[in-house]
Each structure stands twice: as C-alpha cells, then as structure tokens.
Amino acid sequence: MSVSSRHPLQRLNAPSRGFSALVHIAGLTSFYFSFQFLALFPNEISESYGWHFQFLTIIGLGLATATFVFGLISDVFLSSRFFAWKNTLAVVSAPMEIDKALVVPPGFELDTMVDIGFHLAPAVFLLIDILLLSPPWAEGYAQAFSIPSGIAVAYFFWLEECYKHNKFYPYPLLEQMTYEQRVALFAGSALVMAGSTVALRAVYRRLW
C-alpha cells in the first residue's frame, strides 16, 4: 500500500516507517513487559490448564500483540497484505474493561503500573491504531454482531474446557453461577461488545 492509495478518510500514513511504526514499536514494548510479568511471577493460574489465556484480558493482550506485529511488519516492508491483516485483527482485539472485583481471583492483585499495562495500555494503543492508522472497516451491522457472538461462543466453550481440567473457573463470578446463567452472561457480553463496535465506527466517522 502506497501513501497515495490510502483511504481518503485515513488522515495519517499507514503503513509507514514514521509515526505508524513508532506506535507499533511502543505498543509491542508495552505488551512484552506485560507478558514478561506473567512469566516472572507465576501463580495458581500459571500452573493450570490454559495458563493465563483463561482470562479474556490476556486473550485480548495476545490479539493486540498479533495486531501490532502485523502492523510493524507492514510498516517495515510497506506490505498491503500485512496491513490488511492488521486492520482485520484491530477491529476484534480491542479489550473490554469490566469490574475487576467480579473477575480477578482472590489474592491476585496488581500494582497500578502493572494494571495499566494489562488493561489501559492495550486499549489506548489499539484506539490510536484504529482511529488514526487504519482505514474505515467495511464490515456492516451483521458482522458487528456476528463477530462478537463468535468470540463469546468460542470463549465460553474454552472456559468450560479449562474447567474440566482445572475444576475451577478463573473468574470468581462464574463459580457462583449455573450453566444457564453463564450462557446468559456471555450472550449479554456479546451484545455489549457489538454495541461497542458500532459505537467505535460512529466515533471514527465523526472524527474524520
């Protein structure tokens, strides 16, 4: 993708070896230190089936890392193919913030800087990438609801599989719910994610 071929609503040049590459390098550096923290400070989750990828936050962090790897490759080689892959991942990898009291296991507390690395930093970097360094995505409202629904279903069955091995859920809230209540919770989460996707599209269009 050349600079001249970018979408007219995409005001900043991406991929590029300037600002775009700097954002992707900064994001990957932040993500690296977050994963390094998980490796250096193991806990019960570290030894369980599914590792920390039982947490939606860490899955989101992994997707954000993949997004920025593709983004940096597209910057270095000015590759339209990797740029397209980056844009696709960026749409689905923005993490959602939820009440930590419901989802953080007892005794698993993070200091402020580590917490920022896991929750705030990925959201900020992905928003910068989506709003400033990506063209408007073409997905319609059907995709806005089908993609979050697919993620919710896959994550639901992934947690159930982990429970078969570990005999506990990573989120204390799920321990207190019946199977039907968990289904309802994930269905509601899919709707919230879909609403966030639609809202983000609206922000993009209003901004540019």
Automatic annotation (TrEMBL):
Transmembrane segments: 21-41, 53-78, 116-134, 140-159, 183-204
Entry GO terms, CC: endomembrane system; membrane
InterPro entries: ADTRP_AIG1 (IPR006838)
Keyword Membrane attributed: yes
Pfam families registered for this protein in UniProt: Far-17a_AIG1
Membrane topology, from the record: Multi-pass membrane protein
Keywords in alphabetical order: Membrane, Transmembrane, Transmembrane helix
Presence of keyword Lipoprotein: no
Protein name, entry field: Integral membrane protein
Organism whose genome encodes this protein: Ascodesmis nigricans
